[in-house]
């Protein structure tokens, strides 16, 4: 069963509150995407395994800890996920980054892959798929299916805002994937937008509307 972790940290709630306002500028919105992604990532990496290493402080030898194994790979779903990835890279600068691009087939309404580029050793890494808005869950589920079809198994999903409909679909289709959510909203409207939400995350990050 998926773990669904909804952040209750005051900093995250405060920053998401500013993001929701329609008067928030593109620059401020973009900075907040990056900051909130970093804060969510802090929680999402809580259970990463550590290895002991011997080091020398200026005074003595001691045992310190480092993240064990092949480390991480961040996979933003284009285009809105890109800025979340940038924020997380501030925290984990050595992570590798893969990209997945999906568009919606207007007849079937299902997501179709148009771009996928991953590190060659992605299947040995802990993968963090990022997309600001988990709305219907279609893109997130399709991106994760695509990764699994390439033999990747250690997958987490991070978003800023989720609708219950998206959480249900994602966790039913991928019960092995833990989901980290900045805020869980009420529902989707008839156009697939999250309410109360924050509008179109990609447009607000890039100022395209
Ligand atoms: N994508 C967005 O950017 N916003 C929503 O509300 C839903 C999907």
Topology:
Elements: E1 4-6, H1 10-20, H2 26-44, E2 50-56, E3 61-67, E4 72-76, H3 81-91, E5 96-97, E6 99-104, E7 111-117, E8 126-130, E9 133-134, H4 138-149, E10 155-162, H5 164-173, E11 178-184, E12 187-188, E13 194-195, H6 201-206
Parallel strand pairs: 1-11, 4-5, 4-8, 8-10, 9-10, 10-11
Antiparallel strand pairs: 2-3, 6-7, 12-13
Helix pairs in contact: 1-2, 2-3
What would your notes on this structure say?
- The protein is of the alpha/beta class and 209 residues long.
- Helices cover 33% and strands 30% of the residues.
- The protein contains six helices and 13 strands.
- It has helices spanning 10-20, 26-44, 81-91, 138-149, 164-173, 201-206, and strands spanning 4-6, 50-56, 61-67, 72-76, 96-97, 99-104, 111-117, 126-130, 133-134, 155-162, 178-184, 187-188, 194-195.
- The chain starts with a strand and ends with a helix.
Count of distinct structural domains? 1
Main sheet properties: 7 strands, parallel
Mean pLDDT: 95
Structural class: alpha/beta
Distance between the termini: 39 Å
How many strands?
13
Q: Radius of gyration in whole Å, from Cα? A: 18 Å
Identify the overall geometry.
globular
Question: How many helices does DSSP assign?
Answer: 6
Low-confidence stretches: none
**Distinct bound molecules:** uracil
Sketch the topology as an H/E string, one letter per element: EHHEEEHEEEEEHEHEEEH
User: Can you tell me the CATH architecture?
Assistant: 3-Layer(aba) Sandwich
Beta-strand content: 25-35%
Domain Phosphoribosyltransferase: 7-208
Catalytic activity: UMP + diphosphate = 5-phospho-alpha-D-ribose 1-diphosphate + uracil
Organism: Anaerocolumna sedimenticola
Binding site for uracil: 194, 199-201
